[in-house]
Every structure is written in C-alpha cells, then in structure tokens.
Specification:
The complex is a heterodimer of chains A (about 100) and B (about 200). Helices cover about 80% and strands about 0% of the residues of chain A. Chain A starts with a helix and ends in a 5-residue tail after the last helix. The C terminus of chain A is likely disordered. Chain B has about 200 residues and is an all-alpha fold. Chain B has one domain. Helices cover about 80% and strands about 0% of the residues of chain B. Chain B has 10 helices and no strands. In chain B, helix 4 crosses helix 10 and helix 6 runs parallel beside helix 10. Chains A and B meet through helix 1, helix 3, helix 4 and helix 5 of A and helix 1, helix 2, helix 4, helix 5 and helix 6 of B.
C-alpha cells in the first residue's frame, strides 16, 4: 500500500516538474537508461544467486514467451473486434 | 532500439554472472529507491513533452478506450493461459501486467512477490517488445489500432518511432497516449495485484 502511494506520488511530482519545464536537464544525461541498467543488473544478481531460477531458465523462458504471445494476441484481438464493431471512421485512418 | 536491447541484456547478463559467482545481492531498499526515481523521471519525461496536456485532451476518449482494450485483451488472455501453465491466474495476470515495461514489472514483482515470477514477468515483457517490433509493421496493414495495442506501455517511447512509420498521425498520437496511460497503470496495477 505504501509502495503504491509512493509510486503515484513520485509519478505525479515528476509530471508536475515536467509540465513546469523544470528539471528537464535530468532527462538529458541519460539517467533513465542508466537507472534501467542498474535495475536490470540487480535483477540479474537475483537470478544468478537463486538456484531455483538459474537451473530452470529455459523452462521459464518458454513460459515467458507463451505469456507474451497470449498477451499480444489478446490485445490485438480485443482492439480488432472493437474497431470492427464500433468505429467505421477510424478505419479510414489507414494509410495503405 | 536494438543497441538499447543489447546494452540492457548485457547489464542483465553481467548481473547474473556476478550474482552467480560472488553471491552479491543488492539491498531491496536501494532497489525500491531506484524504482521510485525511475517512475519520477518517467513522469518528468511525459510532462515535458510539448503541449502534452492539450494533445491528450483532444483525443482522450480514443486514448482511454484504446488503453482499456489493451488491458482487457492482455489480462483476459493471461487468465486463459493459466489453465495451461502451472501458475495461478493471479501470477499470470501479474506477470502480463507489465505491458512491455520489463524493467519495472520484473523488479517490482521480484520485490513484492517472488524473484521467480519477477524473472518470468521480465522475460515475457522483453518478448512482448520483440514481438511488437516484428509484428506492428505487419499487423498495422490489417488494423492500425489493434497493431498499436501490441506495444502496451512501450508505445510512448521505445516503439513510438516504429509506430509513427507504420500508422497515421492520429493513431500515432493515440499510441503515445496509450503509452502514457499504461505507464501510469503498470506500477499501480502490479502493486494492487501483489498487495
């Protein structure tokens, strides 16, 4: 619960700063990609130190692939059905 | 885009190797702090976009519907998958709730639930991005909005240039909006699912 509030707060304050064009320099130094790399590194250490995960990486990878496949298929199908049913004009947006 | 993926995969691999051979574990408080900083910076990044509020306001209905469809489609199919895989619906829905934002979803789920599911979520969201890179140009010839939904939260940054090449101007804007909405929803949804 606390983490949820902290996230909403962090995001809102960030967006407010962005709207006021303050702290823009922060995005110029590629801090975002560096933070992402640190997070991925820490994620890696967790995988590396856990025998349960490390010894099952191929199985885990396969399951993860299925999740991604289902998630993207679901998104596509849901949006496809909706646009076919409810928005004829939006289909005119097609460039081809 | 590919260099980014290589660098990120490199960081992950390095982490796995160092964790494997030295047993190094990063303190979870530090990770939480970095996560907050990440969300904060993403907030700045969205806010500083020129005329962002009016752009979003103009298409708000389309953006919200588009985001909702992406969420409903993703989570429904993750639920269906739980009948075939040895995970509970909650676990699969949670793993899929990263909507392509792999760095955040993976780490958050590791922190809040289990490192195993965090890893699964991480890898599956990397796959989601790769599937999007490959299929958005192809699927947008059939239905642009449906193709955009593949990208999930990444339609705002990583995949935006690809989307703008494959879809109309208006749909690119909707794609950007979908990315904004989902980027906000991912951390909220994951913390609610694994509360």
């Amino acid at each position: 619960m606390i983490i949820l509030l902290m996230i909403i707060l962090a995001f809102s304050i960030g967006m407010l700063f962005g709207l006021k064009k303050r702290l823009n320099f922060l995005t110029r130094f590629k801090i975002l990609p560096i933070l992402t790399c640190i997070l991925l590194f820490s994620m890696g250490t967790e995988i590396g130190t856990s025998e349960e995960i490390f010894s099952n990486l191929t199985g885990i990878g396969f399951h993860a692939f299925l999740i991604a496949l289902f998630a993207t298929a679901g998104s596509f199908i849901a949006t496809f059905i909706y646009t076919r049913l409810f928005s004829k004009t939006e289909e005119d947006e097609r460039v081809d | 885009m590919l260099t980014d993926i290589l660098i990120m995969t490199g960081s992950l691999t390095l982490g796995i190797a160092i964790g494997r051979f030295t047993g190094l574990v990063i303190p979870s408080d530090l990770i939480t702090l970095i996560l907050m900083l990440l969300v904060f910076l993403v907030g700045i990044d969205i806010g500083r976009e020129e005329g962002i509020l009016s752009k979003i306001k103009m298409n708000i209905r389309h953006i919200l519907i588009q985001s909702l469809l992406t969420i409903v489609g993703t989570l429904t199919f993750a639920f269906i998958l739980s009948f075939f895989l040895p995970y509970s619906p909650k676990e699969l829905i949670g793993a899929a709730a990263g909507f392509g934002w792999y760095s955040l979803s993976g780490v958050m789920i590791s922190q809040l639930y289990s490192p195993l599911l965090g890893t699964i979520s991480f890898i599956s969201n990397v796959f989601r991005e790769l599937i999007s890179i490959i299929f958005i140009p192809i699927l947008s010839k059939i239905n642009q909005r449906a193709a955009i939904s593949l990208a999930g939260a990444t339609s705002m940054d990583v995949l935006l240039s690809l989307i703008s090449k494959s879809t109309s101007k208006k749909n690119t804007l909707i794609a950007f909006g979908q990315g904004v909405v989902l980027s906000l929803i991912v951390p909220i949804m994951i913390s609610i699912i694994f509360l």
